């Protein structure tokens, strides 16, 4: 499994290769078989949401304050492989997921960020992101529960769909 290390204090991520941390493009890390086109990266096609029974069970186990729950072990076992298949990676030392998107130019990157921002605002769930010209790096985690939640899965699914428009 690939993992991304975010250095203390932010900045560009560092990637682990054979135990040595190096600065590298996430795109290069994902394209193991040679050059790839950013628009050929797989997009989440499976529905990544809880069933009605799971949602009802989860709602009944939510505290009185209505706190957001972290993903259960079973949910992680089912959902994280699907995210990995769509090139999301788990962040080392943190319960979060990360992905880098590369677009033709700044206008496409900014349009993508605008679509994501509108959806994130509707969901009241905001990504951590970094943009330079045509690259957008996104980290998702739910601060209210201190890790990954269904909100991250839902937003990651939307983000992947928005990246191909």
TrEMBL record:
Cellular compartments per GO CC: cytoplasm; nucleus
UniProt cross-references to Pfam families, sorted A to Z: Pterin_4a
Compartments it resides in: Cytoplasm; Nucleus
UniProt-listed InterPro entries: PCD_sf, Pterin_deHydtase
Keywords from the named record: Acetylation, Activator, Cytoplasm, Lyase, Nucleus, Tetrahydrobiopterin biosynthesis, Transcription, Transcription regulation
Catalytic activity: (4aS,6R)-4a-hydroxy-L-erythro-5,6,7,8-tetrahydrobiopterin = (6R)-L-erythro-6,7-dihydrobiopterin + H2O
GO annotation terms (biological process): tetrahydrobiopterin biosynthetic process
EC numbers for this chain: 4.2.1.96
Gene Ontology MF terms in the entry: 4-alpha-hydroxytetrahydrobiopterin dehydratase activity
Major location (coarse): cytoplasm
Function: Involved in tetrahydrobiopterin biosynthesis. Seems to both prevent the formation of 7-pterins and accelerate the formation of quinonoid-BH2. Coactivator for HNF1A-dependent transcription. Regulates the dimerization of homeodomain protein HNF1A and enhances its transcriptional activity. Also acts as a coactivator for HNF1B-dependent transcription.
Protein family according to the UniProt entry: Belongs to the pterin-4-alpha-carbinolamine dehydratase family.
The name this protein goes by in its record: Pterin-4-alpha-carbinolamine dehydratase
